[in-house]
Amino acid sequence: MKYVIIDDFLPQEDFQSIKNMIIGNPDFNWHIHNEVTNSDYREENKQIDYKNQKWNWYMFHLFYFHVPYSGYFDNISKIFSEKIYKMGDITDFKSLIRVKANFYPYTSEVKEHQRHRDHPFSHKGAVFSLNTCDGFTRMVNGDKIDSVENRLVIFDPSEYHNSSTTSSCRARFNINFNWL
Amino acid sequence: MNKGSIDIIDDFVPQEEFATIQTVMMGNTFPWYWNPNITYEDSVERNGQFSHTFFRENEGRNDWYNLVRPIMRELYSPYKGVLYRCKANLNPREDKNYQLGDYYSDYNLTCKTAILYINTNNGYTKFKGVDDVVESVENRIVIFDSHLKHVGFTCTDEKTRVLININYVTYQ
Predict the structure, then answer these.
(1) Taking CA atoms, which of A57, B12, B118, B150 is between 20 and 30 Å from B141?
(2) Which of residues 36-65 of A touch B (CB under 8 A)?
(3) Which of the 8 DSSP states describes residue A138?
(4) ipTM, 2 decimals?
(5) Alpha carbon of B69: minimum distance to chain A alpha carbons (Å)
(6) A123-132 pLDDT, tens per residue?
């Protein structure tokens, strides 16, 4: 599927509420993952030993994975359900698979993580940006989707894509949705 | 090793117990909390820090406190101890060894500060007026009077610099 970008996705009040809950909340728990992805993807003419790159790590917060994993999931559900779940053909929403927040750390120059697929079967997903920075999501066709706060990009995450670090902010914060 | 009133002890926690602490804290089940209010005027890129408070005065211990209990046992021995605060910090790797804020002292109380390094990296701790630095070596602890001003420096050679900062007193 061709990706869809929706700017100013949430009403400003809802956006600030979600942003404060995740970025401005000292009680919001994050967990480290020492590799951003462990993918089987091999790029031609590009032999990067991702595993040993010191920038190849991130923090995550799992809201939902088949079942709720976080006390904060209700807030996410309340704010996003009316929007994502009921957008008709664009989202074609039937059942949620996973929702997680990501923290990709600052690097002095933007580093692209390894290309990967979230799941091997066709489904839909979205990346919702919580802050504006020079990090991005690169789609299967090579297009770069900039991180712009309150922007949602909907795509098929079973197609190869990748995230990146940021060199313009302390971190790149976003929320990643997957659904059938 | 002793540098005046600064004691440095390597292999502080018995290896098996330290390995448990390190594995859990460096793993993906351990929760970290982002504090965006730690700011540096010279570089917005370094604002914020991950931390985890195991114990704080007047609040008590959290559910993860048992993980660090062996550290307190070693720290207080052969006396008894009273804990004021036990907090872990996680600082992301940087391209240079940046100073993490200004020199500061943890408490104006008569108490001790101990810093236990959870992973080995080229970040370090520096004390005001002392030329030598304390390198971040896993299972190394540095113990000093809490009024001594000190500051941490980020690492460049590992993904993160992780340590536990403890404030306490001992009595017989």
Answers:
(1) A57
(2) 54-57, 59-60
(3) E
(4) 0.91
(5) 22
(6) 999 999 999 9
